[in-house]
Amino acid sequence: MSRPHTRLATLLRRGQWMLAEAAHKLGGKQLPEADRHAVAAALDELSAALREHTDEPTAPATEQDERPAVVETER
Could you tell me if 53 and 18 are in contact, meaning their C-beta atoms sit under 8 angstroms apart? Predict the structure, then answer.
């Protein structure tokens, strides 16, 4: 992976790990304010990196190639 891809992949994994840990602590009512702020800061950094990230130029996508992103929510 190139440097920007590596950085973004690292931030995504870090966010995944932090969110899993925060969810576990929150379930036990043990998520201190400092941890909440750390998770929020990491998510801010991740969202900025996602907005700034660009892939290598590729051929324009056609309608057939486009698939909508599916995000499942907890019910």
Answer: no
Angstrom distance (rounded) from CA 10 to CA 5: 9
CA atoms within 13 A on the CB side of 43: 11
Question: First and final CA of the chain: distance in angstroms?
Answer: 36
* Single pTM value for the model: 0.62
The position carrying tokens 């309608």 is 63
Handedness of CA 49, 52, 57, 59 (dihedral sign): positive
- Average pLDDT in the chain: 82
Q: Both tokens of residue 44? A: 């801010």
The answer to whether the beta carbons of residues 53 and 12 sit under 8 Å apart is no
